[in-house]
Amino acid sequence: MRIIVSGDAGASMDRSLIQRAMSNLVSNAVRYAPPGSDVLIKVERVPDSDVRISVQNQGTPIPPDALPRLFQRFFRADTARTSDADHHGLGLAIVAAIARMHGGTAQAQSDSAFTRVGFRFPAA
Number of structural domains, the chain? Predict the structure, then answer.
């Protein structure tokens, strides 16, 4: 597997909290990506001066009805996954909480080509 980092943007943030959020996002992407695929970490300034950080991977799409619930505590989109025994459904809830602490929101999208999960917050 290859991890690719793209982009650059400055922002005022709590470094340790953002590191925790990124750890959770990358961990999820690596866990659900097929072997030999790429995981893309993208940092960008969006037109309204916000910063968006996302982690994108290939893999089985997340059902559209599950996307709005991804950031709820203990929610699991697929409870049948046997590899999830050591995971409790808190990682993305933590990402969402960290985004809110920075005045932002967590975001997710998924289709047959990729899944992208991340957060957006004001640059200043």
Answer: 1
